[in-house]
Fold this sequence. Notes:
alpha+beta; 3-stranded antiparallel beta sheet; 52% helix; globular; Helix-turn-helix domain-containing protein; ArsR-like_HTH; HTH_ArsR_DNA-bd_dom
Amino acid sequence: xxxxxxxxxxxxxxxxxxxxxxxxxxxxxxxxxxxxxxxxxxxxxxxxxxxxxxxxxxxxxxxxxxxxxxxxxxxxxxxxxxxxxxxxxxxxxxxxxxxxxxxxxx
Length: 106
């Protein structure tokens, strides 16, 4: 079986992320909850912020957030850790993440 670290994680340049991609990533309630959890506490493992869905569905959520430029992931030992690319994302889409997080808090 291949290691999960066999393929490097891809983090897009934010200028390659469209507004539609960003909105699509933030539209889903599970992904929005994951983003909100990372806004409160960066550097959490996938298991700590994984929504109550199957592992393949959770992997898809992580992939969508990474592709939309919201999520940075890295491996540390046996864990994959996550953080928001807050500064970069805010520079590309000013105020969008604040609006999404305010909605998540409602």
